[in-house]
Amino acid sequence: MSVRTESSEQPAEAVHRAGFACFVGRPNAGKSTLTNALVGKKVAITSNRPQTTRHTVRGIVHRPEAQLILVDTPGLHKPRTLLGERLNDVVRATWAEVDVIGFCLPANEKLGPGDRFIAKELAGIKRTPKVAVITKTDLVDSKTLAEQLIAVDQLGKELGFEWAEIVPVSAVAGEQVELLADLLIPMLPESPPLYPEGDLTDEPEQVMVAELIREAALEGVRDELPHSIAVVVEEMLPREDRPAEKPLLDIHANIYIERPSQKGIIIGPKGKRLKDVGIKSRKQIEALLGTPVFLDLHVKVAKDWQRDPKQLRKLGF
Q1: Cβ of 186: how many Cβ atoms within 10 Å?
Q2: pLDDT in tens, 117-170
Q3: 178 HSE (CA, 13 A, CB side)
Q4: Is the pLDDT of residue 10 over 60?
């Protein structure tokens, strides 16, 4: 078993590579945080609630010799709703199309049935190289990490495949993140860049703004709301009659929940929570778009939207 802890010298060749990598793993295995660390800018929604990534947010890592496009899929899980099934279909469709798959396994949690479930699915994908990424290494000591590395190596052997690499990383501490990119890049096909230099994601700005609002709305909601929130940005328009040096972008967005009883949770006593959501997400949106923003948020009920194909389509799933 080869575990990489430092980069080997790259041969000096002028070939340019570009391609797609996706991170898979149980919900909350650190996939989004890793995507953000590699790209160096916040592009994927990170939340300490599992199962929050809905869209295939692509982060793009630009190197002089390569372009690594990261596809962040939702966590694969046993589906309970129509939305759950659609999310799983999205995952499998993504796996079939990428050049390399990174399987994220947290260093601080023993391998469980969820990990085996995913590893079995991966074993069925023959041609794509699979890299085991041991995440959250900052949370464990070296002995625990060594045990996890051996367990992950064994898991591949049991299921009849060999990991292309096993790489321990800490996205939070920034350890070995660059090394991971160094190891993924040689697995990409030779290709000119697929995106213009400077692009960090190919998601339309409205989708990213909606994700930032959704992330802020999720924070602090300790009960069962994570799946029940969808955000739709209705419009983003520059405010008219503003001098060129003082632009303002008006953003109108709706936060959809499934039941009227959830409305009070999102809005909070005297509207305080919704106000906090607005303040927090506005800061993030301004950082993302580089312009001052006026954010207008409304909470609406879309009854049982996760189980209703019409509502799902309307909300962009």
Answers
A1: 13
A2: 889 988 988 888 999 999 999 999 999 999 999 999 999 999 999 999 999 999
A3: 6
A4: no
Q: 119 exposed, middle or buried (CB, 10 Å; 0-12, 13-18, 19+)?
A: buried
Residue 104 amino acid letter: C
> What SS3 string covers the chain?
CCECCCCCCCCCCCCCEEEEEEEECCCCCCHHHHHHHHHCCCCCCCCCCCCCCCCCEEEEEEECCEEEEEEECCCCCCCCCHHHHHHHHHHHHHHHHCCEEEEEEECCCCCCHHHHHHHHHHHCCCCCCEEEEEECHHHCCHHHHHHHHHHHHHHHHHCCCCCCEEEECECCCCECHHHHHHHHHHHCCECCCCCCCCCCCCCCHHHHHHHHHHHHHHCCCCCCCHHHCEEEEEEEEECCCCCCCCCCEEEEEEEEECCHHHHHHHHCHHHHHHHHHHHHHHHHHHHHHCCCEEEEEEEEECCCHHHCHHHHHHCCC
Distance of CA 76 to the CA centre of its chain: 13
Half-sphere CA count of 198, side-chain side, radius 13 A = 1
Four-residue CA torsion sign, 308, 309, 313, 317: positive
Q: What are the pLDDT digits (tens) for 278-306? A: 999 999 888 877 788 999 999 988 877 77
* pTM for this prediction: 0.60
Pairing of strands 66-72, 57-63: antiparallel
Spell out the residues 6+ positions from residue 179 whose beta carbon is closer than 8 angstroms to its own: 4, 5, 6, 7, 167, 169
Residue 74 binned pLDDT confidence (cut-offs 50, 70, 90):
low
Please name which of 34, 75, 30 lies closest in space to residue 52, comparing C-alpha atoms.
Answer: 75
Q: What is the pLDDT of residue 295?
A: 94
Please enumerate in sequence order all residues whose Cβ is within 8 A of that of 84, keeping only pairs 6 or more positions apart, or say none: 77, 78
